[in-house]
Each structure stands twice: as structure tokens, then as C-alpha cells.
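testing teh design pipeline on a random one, pls ignore if ur not involved
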């Protein structure tokens, strides 16, 4: 089982470009989208979060259940659900504004245990920024790493939520010794101000950098560097594309029995190239339809 830890929220998705486009509510949040994508790909998945008892919170949990995701580890509370308002530019790229004060997911507390079947835990996005929950997710991250579980991080930087950029960058570096796999976009990498080789030296076994339509590159601790181009597709929007890549990588590593630091280190050029191509195909499907709608296994074929 892969456990995805982080926020679930409601995306208010514009139905066209510009700030005043009509908005449609959609289930979202980076970790939430990752869990949905893993469920659709057929990987046993559990979601670890805190959700509101309001109607949006119920809809979020129902969405996970429909995809076969285990929600027994989700904490509940009376506070409202976080809202993320997206704005699309003419090319379909999304920017976000967040409404997070006093919301349910910020009050997450680290669980005493993870599911017995857990082999990997994935972290990222707003959940590692907004206190007091961020410290609780960080505690879970260090606990999982200490237990020898495969740990994955997609920081998915939302700069508008980060009051002190330098403090966040320092905190990001402090997570690296607890990470097995770091996945981030080229934009995230630029904002964080580091380089894959520097991050590898601090802890992860592999770093995957996504470049939108230009493809993906992985850098490995033992000096490997492998790239694949992006899949050509008519882009509707990019919402959830990075989350889909994250899920596809984890699903593909499970399919190759590489969900351990040692097995990941042994994955060679052929294995990485197949995995990156699979992730590129998955992201292209998500970009071809509105909102965060990742593909099902039947749409992608084998890793």
C-alpha cells in the first residue's frame, strides 16, 4: 500500500481564461489528486489527512472511496474545507489563490501508526506549509523514514502561501535526509534555488524534474541522468498534471518492485526510461481534459 499524506480541498476551477471566468467546484489538493490517480491506476492506496465534516468534506471522501482509496486514516473536524481558486492564462496554465484560515486540514495531527501494509508514504504541497499541521506532517515524514519506508516528496510550491521564503527553503533542505524520491517541477527547482546534485547529496536516492511539455529528467545518486520528451497533446489545462506524474512514478516503481531505497538505487537506465515515459503519458491524458482528471490504468497500458 502507498499512503498519501496531505491536504484535500475544493478547487474552484475557471471555465475559461481570466480572473472573472465562471468557477466550477472540483475535488482537489495535490496529495488528494495523487491519491485519486493512484487509485485509478490500481495501486492499493490510503489517504492520511484531516477533512471537514461539511458537505465539501463529505464529497472529498466520497471521491476517494469511488476510486478505491482507503480513508480510514482520515481525521474529521467541524472547521470548513480549504478553498483554492484557480485562474487560467491563455495557454491553460493555472495560478492559485487560497482560502485557508481556520480550515479543517490545518489541524491535522500525526497518527500513532500507519497501515500495516504501507510500503511508501508520499508528502507535499500546502500541507507542509500551513501550521500547525505542517509540523505534524513533518513528524510523520521523519517517523516513516525512520521505519525504513519509502518516502516521496513533491513540494509543489505555492509561493503565495509561504510568508518567509528563506525559512521555507531551509525547512525543505531539512526534509531531504528523510526522502527516498524527490519529484519537483523546473519552476519549483528555480524557486527553491538548488540543483538536483546538491539535493541528492543531502539524502534522496533519485530526483525527478518535470518540464511541462518538454518532458522529464531523473538524476540518480550514482550519477545517472535519463530524460524523456513530453507527450504531444492538445492542452485543455494543466491542473493536476504534476500530481499525476507523482502518482505515475509511485505506481510504476511499485510495478517494478522498486519501492525501497535499495531497489530504487538499482533501477537502471531502461527501468527509468520506461517509468518516465509512463509518467509523461499519464500527465498528457490529464492535460487533455478539464480539471484534475487523471487517467485510469486502461488508458495507459503497461509501465
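output:
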Amino acid at each position: 500500500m502507498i499512503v498519501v499524506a496531505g491536504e484535500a480541498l475544493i478547487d474552484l476551477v475557471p471555465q475559461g481564461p481570466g480572473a472573472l471566468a465562471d468557477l466550477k467546484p472540483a475535488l482537489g489538493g495535490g496529495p488528494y489528486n495523487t491519491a485519486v490517480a493512484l487509485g485509478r491506476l490500481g495501486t492499493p492506496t490510503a489517504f492520511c489527512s484531516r477533512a471537514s465534516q461539511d458537505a465539501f468534506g463529505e464529497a472529498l471522501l466520497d471521491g476517494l472511496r469511488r476510486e478505491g482509496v482507503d480513508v480510514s486514516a482520515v481525521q474529521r473536524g467541524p472547521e470548513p474545507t480549504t478553498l483554492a481558486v484557480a485562474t487560467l492564462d491563455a495557454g491553460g496554465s493555472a495560478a492559485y489563490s487560497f482560502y485557508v484560515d481556520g480550515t479543517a486540514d490545518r489541524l491535522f495531527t500525526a497518527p500513532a501508526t500507519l497501515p500495516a501494509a504501507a510500503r511508501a508514504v508520499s508528502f507535499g504541497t500546502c500541507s507542509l506549509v500551513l501550521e500547525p499541521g505542517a509540523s505534524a506532517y513533518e513528524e510523520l515524514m521523519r517517523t516513516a523514514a525512520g521505519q525504513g519506508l519509502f518516502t516521496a516528496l513533491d513540494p509543489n510550491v505555492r509561493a503565495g502561501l509561504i510568508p518567509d521564503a528563506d525559512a521555507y527553503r531551509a525547512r525543505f533542505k531539512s526534509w531531504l535526509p528523510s526522502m527516498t524520491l524527490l519529484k519537483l517541477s523546473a519552476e519549483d527547482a528555480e524557486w527553491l534555488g538548488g540543483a538536483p546534485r546538491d539535493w541528492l547529496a543531502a539524502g534522496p536516492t533519485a530526483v525527478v524534474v518535470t518540464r511541462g511539455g518538454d518532458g522529464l529528467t531523473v538524476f540518480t545518486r550514482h550519477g545517472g541522468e535519463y530524460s524523456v520528451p513530453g507527450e504531444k497533446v492538445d492542452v485543455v489545462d494543466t491542473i493536476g498534471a504534476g500530481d499525476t506524474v507523482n502518482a505515475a512514478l509511485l505506481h510504476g516503481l511499485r510495478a517494478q518492485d522498486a519501492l525501497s531505497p535499495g531497489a530504487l538505487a538499482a533501477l537502471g537506465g531502461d527501468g527509468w526510461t520506461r517509468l518516465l515515459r509512463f509518467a509523461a503519458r499519464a500527465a498528457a491524458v490529464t492535460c487533455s481534459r478539464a480539471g484534475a482528471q487523471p487517467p485510469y490504468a486502461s488508458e495507459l497500458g503497461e509501465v
